[in-house]
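Thread: "does anyone have the structure for this chain?"

Original post by V.I.:
We have the sequence but no experimental structure in hand. Need at least a predicted one for the grant figures.
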Amino acid sequence: MDKENINVNAISKEILGLNNAALQAISDEDYDKALEFLKEAEKKVLKYKSQLSDPKIQIIINHNLACCYQKQKNIQKCIYHLEKVNTDFELYLENKHKIHIDQTFFIEKILSDNPQPNIHLGDFILELRFCAKFHLQMCAAYSQNTNNKEALNHAKLAALICMDNISKTYH
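Reply from O.Q.:
Generated one for you, tokens below.
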């Protein structure tokens, strides 16, 4: 391995270490401490984004930031980070599976009952499970922010994702 790869691996491990420390702080309900760890991780992700090999690291950090802000009742910052998760996760799914996740995608899938080609089903179901969970969190955050129309859109998408996952599980 060359020196640059070792540094990138070390950076990834450092970011994930900060995330793990934040998760422990969240578990201890010390959200201020968790935010310190996560903000430091976010800085490193932004600095080394183009060099990191796992695109999900940024998604994880933003999701955990959103969780902390939601626990602190800072709904605006929660929504901001959830929107970043949404954008990054959609891009991740488009790059990995060549699909765009929205209500139209699932309605067409349910109506056509055609399997998605070239997708490892186990990974895809797990990814969609995260996607449904994330959209339910978006629903809750928008509802707390009294944006009921946006909350309903995310609830509908989460329901469609769950229906699709159930369908995939039993076919």
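V.I.: this helps a lot. The chain has a mean pLDDT of 83.
O.Q.: and Helices lie at 3-27, 31-48, 56-71, 75-97, 103-112, 121-144, 148-170.
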